[in-house]
Amino acid sequence: MSRGSIQRRGKHNSWRIRIEDGVDATGRRKRHSITFRGSKHDAQRELTRLLGASDAGTLPEPSKVTVAEHLRAWIENEHGLAPKTRERYLELAELQIIPHLGNTVLQRLKPKHVKDWHNTLLKSGAKSGRSLSARTVGHAHRVLHRALQVAVETEVLARNVAARSARRPLKQKRSRS
User: Fold this and answer.
1) Edge-to-edge strands of the sheet including 14-23?
2) pLDDT for 54 beyond 80
3) Which fold has domain 67-164?
């Protein structure tokens, strides 16, 4: 059975959530600590969710793997991709995903990051700084979604944050001047 606690960090709505998740192979306690922003009530709900995941054995081990590292490894090791599909996925990853989300630690990626990324691509996501079409942004989103789904299936992530923002980005209306 795991145990947890919540501690205020600073004056704002920031909380440190700590849980103990059994012991490792050497007999040392496995501790997880995360920073949570929001109300105390929301932090308590997050603690409950984390404790439930810990009890169910689905709490991912902390990892410093970035979005870029995971994405490149997934594309390289995904054996079910046709050569042209692999080439297109790599192009989308290198041009649209990695420049914007690549340095983010995979386990710290949030739905807000994905939404902001969509907006950036729609406004100025092309190499030239011009806007990308909603269709291209949708293709890039699907690549990110598939890569994150593999991370969920291999228990690196607890949830696929791209699934929460799965709606296809809407085409930006251009103003006539």
Assistant:
1) 3-8, 14-23, 29-37
2) no
3) DNA polymerase; domain 1 (1.10.150)
